[in-house]
Amino acid sequence: MKKSIDPGMHSAEHILNGTMDQLFNCGRCFSAHIERKKSKCDYHFTRALTPEELIQIESQVNRVIRANMKVTDTCIPMAEADKRFNLSRLPDGRSDEIRIVSIGDYDACPCIGTHVSETSELGTFRITTSDFKDGVLRIRFKLNR
Ligand SMILES: [Zn+2]
């Protein structure tokens, strides 16, 4: 995780990942490219999303943003994290504890990045485009802040 990453965009990535996994049970994105103006996330998937589903994702993410949830972090023992989270994306050379970042009671995942402190800082979430190819669903998004 680069330190220069935009905290707002990166926090939106957390909410989008939580939403995708909740709606489609597809897990969190396996690859992400986060920039201040526009970002993209890639998911292992079996098909393209319908326009209705894209709207559903957008509205659910925006509901979380507007609910102004607090973004908090806590450190838990690695053994406990192993049971609760998929740690396969973590680099090796782990320590005994791991930092878990929570967005209200909506989403929680291990992360070392920088986040906003409240979701209302994110403005409005918009999916710009989405496409599907070779088992990979790509979602491009931006924030109107
Ligand atoms: Zn994060």
UniProtKB/TrEMBL annotation:
EC main group: ligase
Pfam families named in the record: tRNA_SAD (PF07973)
Domain Threonyl/alanyl tRNA synthetase SAD intervals: 98-140
Cofactor(s) this protein requires: Zn(2+)
Listed EC numbers: 6.1.1.7
Highest rank taxon of the organism: Bacteria
Protein name in the entry: AlaS2
Organism: Desulforapulum autotrophicum (strain ATCC 43914 / DSM 3382 / VKM B-1955 / HRM2) (Desulfobacterium autotrophicum)
Organism placement in taxonomy: Bacteria, Pseudomonadati, Thermodesulfobacteriota, Desulfobacteria, Desulfobacterales
